[in-house]
Amino acid sequence: MAHAPLTAHLAHRAASAHAATTDGAARPVVLAERADATVVRSGSVVAKAHAPGGDSGRLALRLSVAAHPLLSRVLLAPLPVAADPRSGAREAGRGPERRLLDTLPDGRPVSLWPYGTPVDPGAPEAAPWEAVGALLARLHAVPPVALPGPLPPMRGPAKAARALEVLRRTVRRTAAVRAVEAAWARLPAWTRDEAPPPRADALCHGDLHLGQLVRHPAHDGPWRLIDVDDLGLGDPAWDLARPAAWCATGLLAPADFGRLLDAYRAAGGTALPGGADGPPPDPWPRLDAPARALTAQLAARALVRAEAEGRAPDETDRALVDACSRIAGS
C-alpha cells in the first residue's frame, strides 16, 4: 500500500486542478495503489504517481505523444500540470501551460488526467471488444515519423521478462513455477526481450487489457485508451496478444475474441494479414508467440500474487499455469 503522504500529495494535485475548472470541491478517492502506480481522483481530475526509478525523459515523451492531435481519437490526453512549489521541480524552457509531467517531493513523476468511466468489471458480457479492436487499429496506423521523438521501444517484452524475474526471486520453486519457467524457455528470444522484434515500425500500447479503457467524457463519451507508460515502437501483434492468451486459456470466449479481431480488421489494423476476398487469414501465425509470452507473464504474476497473499493459486491462476504446461510440452 502507498504511504499516506503520497496519496495526500496526489489528492492535493487532483483537487487543485479540479477546483480550477469547477466551483465545487470533490472528495479524493484512491483508484489504485500498486508498486508501479498510485492513482487518486478528485472530481473531474485524476492524479497519477508513476513508478519510481523510471526514465522521466521517456515518460515525458510518451505523454507528449498522448497529447498529440493524431492520437485524439485513440488515447486519453493528459492535462497540463503546474509545478508544485513543494517539489522544487522545473522543466527548462517550458511554461506551466505546456508541462505534462512534474515531480513529487519523493522524486516520483506525477501526471494529471481527465476522469473517464472505466469498463465495468462486473459486466464482462458488456465489454467493448469492438471498441478495443478499432482503437488498436487506429493506434497502429499512426505514422511514427509524425510524432514527437525519437520514440522509445514498446515495453511489453521487457515487462514480461520482469515478471519472470520477480517470480524467480520471490516464489518458492513449485511444480507451477517450473511449468511457467519451462514455457518461458521455449519462447522466441524477442518475446523474452532478448532480441529485436520481427517488426518495430508501429506505435503500440504495450499493456493492453480492459482496465486500459475509459469513456471520456465520463459515462457516455467515446472509449479511449489510457496508461501510456509502456507506449512505443514495436510489433503491433503484441497489443492483440493478451486477449489471444485469454482466449487460448479459456478465460475469454472465442466469440468475444472474434469481435475484437473483426473490428480490428474492419478498421484497417496492420498487425494481421489481410485478405481481399473470402474468409480472413488465420491470425494465429502472427499472434502465437506473443500470446504464449503473455500467458507466461500472466501466470508468473498470478503466482507472485498468490504467494504474497498467502494463499493457494485460484481457478484462474491454475488455468494460466496449465496453459504454460501445454506450451512447455508442445
Helix and strand string, N-terminal first?
A: HEEEHEEEHHHEEEEHHHH
Strand content: 5-15%
Report the oligomer.
Answer: single chain
SSE class: alpha+beta
How would you describe the shape?
globular
Nearest-integer average pLDDT: 90
Helix content: 25-40%
The DSSP helix count reads 9
Distance between the termini: 40 Å
Which regions are unreliable across 5 or more consecutive residues at pLDDT < 50?
Answer: 85-97
Could you tell me the number of beta strands?
A: 10
Rg from Cα = 20 Å
What is the strand arrangement across the widest sheet?
Answer: 1-2-3-5-4
Largest sheet: 5 strands, antiparallel
Structure description:
The chain is an alpha+beta fold and 330 residues long. It has 9 helices and 10 strands. The strands form 3 sheets. It has a 5-stranded antiparallel beta sheet. Strands 6-8-9 form a 3-stranded antiparallel beta sheet, covered by helices on one side. The model is unreliable at 85-97 (pLDDT under 50).
